[in-house]
Amino acid sequence: MSLLEAREVGKRYGPVVALESANLSVDAGEVHALLGANGAGKSTFVKILTGVIQRDGGSVELRGEPVRVSSPSQAARIGLAPVFQDPALVPDLTVAQNIRLTGVAVEKVQQRLRELDIDIDFTEQAGDVPLPLLRMIDLARAMARDPQLLLLDEITAALPSDLAERVFAVMEEWRRRGRSVLFITHRLAEVIAMCDRATVLRDGRDVGTLVPRGGGERQIVEHMLGPEAAKAEARAAEVDEKAAAEDRGAADAGATTLGVSDLRVGSLAGVSFSLRGGEILGIAALEGQGQDDLFAVLAGERRAEGGEMSVAGKALRPRHPYDAIRSGLVLVPADRLLALLPQRSVRENIAAPRYNRVTRWGPINPREERRRVAKAIEALQIDTRAQRQVRRLSGGNQQKVTIARWLASGFQTLLCFDPTRGIDVGTKRQIYALLRRLADDGAAILFFSSELSEFPLVCDRVLTLFGGRITGELAGEGADEASLLRAMHGLVEEVAV
Ligand SMILES: Nc1ncnc2c1ncn2[C@@H]1O[C@H](COP(=O)(O)OP(=O)(O)OP(=O)(O)O)[C@@H](O)[C@H]1O
Ligand SMILES: [Mg+2]
């Protein structure tokens, strides 16, 4: 039986067509995927269905009754509860204060988090809680409303596998109870494993609804990108994989750029490694194993509590992110909203890092700057239809801007924390290739990803962290999911390589 029927739903922002005309039908007891490339209109659809924005045209029916969802509170009353793509929390307020703001009983959210086996201190400031845990709070908050339809907009994008599993368990629970889930993700494996049906959007229109199980992956990519683009994509993937395999042999050429010795901070309990120019070193870990602290210390956002760091043989003791940047270390952080100037244009955001002292271009030359920005936009295929304010870009396009801003800024070491979070399958490959090109040009790259399948595609070498220590080292090509998971759970005795 159909729970939700949306027909020919459209939304424009001035000249920008966010959603052209989209149909969607979700059955009771169904987990339904909503798929599409960055900027296809998925989040717009979710916001319309949950009353955050109003549609320009089309109709929505719930159990056969026409509805106009005029506000989020009305959406909640009729059984629609969303988890939006980016956490909707005020960083300076505590977790409990944030929850009270949304009108949900704090005890109910706590109860849901206990069921998810997640322990969060509700008196902590939301800004100090790691992003993956904020996502779980958002999930618990939506569950606390016990909705007929849970709408999950890229909730797993920032989640390591252990937390993603708990989201899947919730989705299964909802299905079992005859309720429904609308699930947005760029991880196709999740769609194949979890979803009963999938509707694909392209350029603001639905282009097909299909059953993902049993080899639907290729079909999905074809729908998302269009058949021609999908073919080109498949060819590029083959070439990439061959090139990656060939490149790995050559990786040991560069001198050590980044040295870390017995580093201790927060949950990081003494970690040592070295990273050479030309090399991409992966860090794989479940949630909360010290990876956040490692990246924060290297980027100058936290002070080390013990141990040494060096860059090109010189001691590195950054007291501030600028110190790290001056030493040639730049960070693509987990939380894009902190990295960007949301009210500013795409151009200003990409150009921003030039206004500090690392610039190698000398005084600002507007023409040179325009060229540089255009090149970065092109390299990452940033959708610039809404470029006057970065906050209006789709989530994936914002993520691309966080990477673009460092291109050609003259860094030696790139610290990438989940850089492809929320980026669609077509562009992910471009980012892998871009990282490889940067390494070939001599950059050293430290790479954390919450998506395990990225490690063998991207890395020369992978270290696994567990309980704040390194528990394994794998060659890039040996870093398959099973080996990574064993080492990430601290289960490996024999160390590969
Ligand atoms: N407030 C706004 N003003 C102008 N354009 C907007 C606004 N909000 C969204 N858009 C545009 O609408 C289009 C669809 O955006 P939407 O966020 O729905 O994409 P998406 O499918 O969720 O993509 P992603 O996978 O990157 O999250 C984009 O081109 C985006 O720039
Ligand atoms: Mg989105």
Task: Give the helices and strands, then pairings.
Blueprint: E1 2-13, E2 16-27, E3 31-35, H1 42-49, E4 57-62, E5 65-66, H2 72-77, E6 80-83, H3 95-101, H4 106-115, H5 131-144, E7 149-153, H6 161-176, E8 180-184, H7 188-194, E9 197-202, E10 205-210, H8 217-225, H9 227-249, E11 256-265, E12 268-276, E13 280-284, H10 291-298, E14 306-311, E15 314-315, H11 321-326, E16 329-332, H12 336-339, H13 346-351, H14 366-380, H15 395-404, E17 413-417, H16 425-440, E18 444-448, H17 454-458, E19 461-466, E20 469-475, H18 481-488
Parallel strand pairs: 3-8, 3-9, 6-7, 7-8, 13-18, 13-19, 16-17, 17-18
Antiparallel strand pairs: 1-2, 1-4, 4-5, 9-10, 11-12, 11-14, 14-15, 19-20
Helix pairs in contact: 4-5, 8-9, 9-16, 14-15
The chain binds adenosine-5'-triphosphate (ATP) and magnesium ion.
CATH architecture of the largest domain: 3-Layer(aba) Sandwich
Number of domains: 2
Strand order, main sheet: write it out: 6-7-8-3-9-10
Amino- and carboxy-terminal Cα gap: 54 Å
Low-confidence stretches: 355-361
The small-molecule ligands in this entry are: adenosine-5'-triphosphate, magnesium ion
Helical fraction: 25-40%
Q: Report the CATH superfamily of the largest domain.
A: P-loop containing nucleotide triphosphate hydrolases
What is the CATH first-level class name of the largest domain? Alpha Beta
Strand content: 15-25%
Shape designation: globular
Mean of residue pLDDT? Answer: 89
Reported for the largest beta sheet, the result is: 6 strands, mixed
DSSP, total strands: 20
Cα Rg: 22 Å
Which assembly state applies to the chains in this document? Answer: single chain
Count, helices: 18
CATH topology of the largest domain: Rossmann fold
Structural class: alpha/beta
